[in-house]
Amino acid sequence: MSPTPLEHRIKALIRLDGPLRIADYMAIVLGDPEHGYYMAREVIGASGDFVTAPEVSQMFGELVGLWAVDTWMRIGRPDPFLLVELGPGRGTLMADALRAARIRTDFLSAARLHLVETSPRLRARQKETLRAAPIAPEWLDRVEDLPEGPAIVVANEFFDALPIAQYVRTGGEWRERVVGLSDAGDLAFGLGLAVLPPPAVPPAARSAPEGSILEIGAAADAVMETVAARLVRSGGALLAIDYGTTRTAVGDSVQAVRAHAPVDPLARPGEADLTAHVDFEALGRAARRVGAAVHAPLEQGDFLLKLGLAERAGRLGADKDLATRERITGEVARLVAPEEMGTLFKVMAVTAPGVVPAPWSA
Ligand code: SAH
Predict the structure, then answer these.
(1) Terminal-residue alpha carbon distance, the chain
(2) How far apart are CA 140 and CA 152, in angstroms?
(3) Is the peptide bond before 78 cis (omega within 30 degrees of 0)?
(4) How many A from CA of 45 to the centre of ligand 1?
(5) Using only C-alpha atoms, what is the Rg of the chain?
(6) Taking a C-beta distance cutoff of 8 angstroms, is the pair 30, 37 a contact?
(7) Cα 193 to ligand 1 centroid, rounded to whole Å
(8) DSSP state for residue 5 in the 8-state scheme
(9) Which residue, of 34, 199, 200, 203, has the fewest CB within 10 Å?
């Protein structure tokens, strides 16, 4: 097989400038304007490389939509307010959320829909999915570009797509992990010269053994700080759903997935999804730094059941045939079962101080 266009480019970059930081490797593989993973391929869905919760079941987006309506009422029904999704993929979650939100027409008429999305291909896809939606979206590249005002922000499998840096415990220090070239000219992991300054080492990693890998999601932390700061300034809430850990832990979580199966993250760059587990403790720290309230991560299964997933499934299947009811039961299982998405995925909310969203309010 001939090398991918990105493999050529990355090798040329390394020959010219030396090894790449893992964060830079991820940023190129995912975001290169021409050949980046999210730019060039149909990535999400049964025919793509991975399936996300909104693609598993319409009930996921519907419950998120009802959560948004409920949160909007808790923050005093601001009109207008920004309804924001970060990394909307195919637009499925938002389409389902807006359909469920029709129960409150005042919510819909107050909402100004903003989608933060870098991929032109996925933007086109979102436009198509949301063609019949009750409100029209506006697209932005970055959270920094969102207009001021109270905001309800949702992000499903967004933070995991942002580049992370990796450091390897070596001789008592944390040396940055890089992608360079092997003697045979293949892409290979190695150790760079940069050292993580000791104050930046999270407490959980301080006594890690030699050879341990520590991940720092600086890009995710920066997005969180920006969003949390605006929530503190103007009011609102963020719901972040992703796979990851409640507490910072050492370990290499970078994974590449193609056609629903794991592949080598350095093989055929641009053709496989590349993600890292989200460190919710670090995201929470970033939000607290700017004065926001953090509502501790719940497991996705727990969150969805508390929001009424079982009841919704019952209603959806009530007048349906057996095959449809079985399909709905299967969808519930995929979303909540511990061996599926139920426990690996976590849900965390960040709000302006004084706001407590469901289901944290119990
Ligand atoms: N939320 C969707 C898609 C998840 S895939 C779902 O659940 O199905 C990640 C999404 O984030 C894609 O839409 C991708 O194009 C987008 N994305 C990745 N990096 C981004 C960045 N830096 N800024 C904005 N969007 C980004």
Answers:
(1) 55
(2) 16
(3) no
(4) 14
(5) 21
(6) yes
(7) 31
(8) H
(9) 199
Segment 317-344, tens digit of pLDDT: 999 999 999 999 999 999 999 999 999 9
- Compute, in angstroms, the gap from residue 18 CA to the centroid of ligand 1: 29
Q: What spacing in Å lies between the alpha carbon of 211 and ligand 1's midpoint?
A: 32
Which amino acid, one-letter code, is at 162? L
Q: Has this prediction a pTM greater than 0.85? A: yes
Residue 190 belongs to what H/E stretch? Answer: strand 187-195
Distant-in-sequence, close-in-space partners of 323: CB < 8 Å, separation ≥ 6: none
Q: What confidence tens digit (pLDDT) does each residue in 246-279 have?
A: 999 999 999 999 999 999 999 999 999 999 999 9
Q: Regarding beta strands 255-258 and 261-263, do their DSSP bridges make them parallel or antiparallel, or are they unpaired?
A: antiparallel
E strands, 117-172, in order: 138-140, 151-156, 165-170
DSSP string covering 74-129: HTT--SSEEEEEES-TTSHHHHHHHHHGGG-HHHHHHEEEEEE---HHHHHHHHHH
Residue 65, token pair as written in the block? 């939509």
Residue 202 pLDDT level (bands cut at 50, 70, 90): very high
Among residues 115, 97, 118, the alpha carbon closest in space to that of 161 is found at 118
In this structure, the residues whose C-beta lies within 6 A of any atom of ligand 1 are 38, 44, 52, 54-55, 87-89, 93, 116-119, 122, 156-158, 161-162
Packing angle between helix 92-100 and helix 58-74, nearest 10 degrees?
60
